[in-house]
Amino acid sequence: MKKSFLFFLAFGMCFLSYAQEPNHESFIVRQLDSNTERYNKIAREIWENPELGYLEFTSSQILIDELKSAGFEVETGVAGLPTSFVATYDRGGPVIGFLAEYDALPGLSQDAVPFRMELVEGGNGHGCGHNLFGTAVVASGAALKEWIDENNIKATIKIFGTPAEEGGAGKAFMVREGLFEGVDAVINWHPSDRNAANASTCTAVMQGYFKFRGQSAHAAGSPERGRSALDGVEAMNMMVNMMREHVDQESRIHYVITNGGLAANVVPDYAVVEYMVRHPDVKEVKDIWQRVIKASEGAAMGTGTAVEVELVSGIYGLLPNETLAKTMHKNLSAVGGVEYDDEEIEFAKKIQETLNMSKVPSLTVAKEVQPYKLTHFPASTDVGDVSYVTPTVGLGTATWVPGTAAHSWQATAADGMSIGYKGMMVAAKTMALTGKDLILNPLLIKEAKKEFDERLDGYVYEPLIGDIAPPLDFRKAQNKVK
């Protein structure tokens, strides 16, 4: 009888202990749900003030003010980047980092309507959803901070405000500065047309300007006295285009002439072409970049001009971490995708009519979570540099109508209305829950670091940007605002 009593007493105490155990997931989700409208307004405010790379003074300040209000200590202007910041909430324990982006793109001004309508002719627009990106990260950090306080948990959150993802390599400069030292794991996300939390690789990039200088002259009266800088650009482009046959098929080479002269009857003494070189293997990117430089030198020699090479950006591809990705996939599956209401369905259908696709995806894709897999993304992100110095994980959520391409007016439109906001909050919940898992499970961090070391396999990270100064003015000429 005594043994039975003791058994039931022990069982009752265990049950009571279990019943009193905090429901961490519910607390975090409730925190985010209760502040949804607040974060929607922040995302819209940044959307209404689209700022290009290294010019995001209003956008970064909006996020900084929100983080200070939430109780974070914020250091601004880090790594020589005026619009960068690091926000810290330090309660000891594991250090979990989050990446926030907030730069817009040139030429993608668009109202939040399902047809083409520029707000500013040739103006900026959030066609990659970074207004949502930065806001969701701040929301995640604030929710985690409240959860840490509520449960008296030892943990530290660092939110990195990273400017100029669209070509300026802001994160590479922050990595070079050593800002990610001591961070146990980094979490981020990106807007998309579907929900997925895959471990992914992508392409490394080198980017820069080739500035040709020649001799001006009257194009008809004394052409023999001129040396055309534009000829230098065109000769370089021709050689690089011939080179395409003799590079690995996974390579990507893009260029645009940003200055080709001012008048047809003047031999241009100055011309500029911008190049980007991509490949999944960072060593291959370095090799191709050197071949492009040699093409520019040959073009200058052949046209009697001179060329100056200005490196603007160099970023790594992503180093995947399946330990973290599978954890994030579990949380995304629990949160679920995006449910459209009737107005959103109507908006989405009109958007899909403009997509120029032979077969558009079903709108139900927005509420589905894609199966987990290891993938390769052929584009690039400066998150890659972060992933080479600490275990890093990311996800995408359906902020855009299924079938929408990034860097399009259709993406800009959705990023400024409820479809984008709903996807943003799916991301915020998934990131916060993943951060919670890392904080509560030290073995998960240990396993992620083990995988990180195995994938590096002794490779020592060296910034592709070398010792160049941040290109703070590289978007100023394109900046068209209200």
UniProtKB/TrEMBL annotation:
One of its GO terms (biological process) is folic acid catabolic process. GO terms for cellular component: cytoplasm. The keyword Hydrolase applies. Residues 1-19 form the signal peptide. Gene3D superfamilies: 3.30.70.360, Zn peptidases. It comes from the Bacteria. Keywords: Hydrolase, Signal. Residues 206-296 form the Peptidase M20 dimerisation domain. GO terms for molecular function: dipeptidase activity; para-aminobenzoyl-glutamate hydrolase activity. This is Aminobenzoyl-glutamate utilization protein B. It comes from Mongoliibacter ruber.
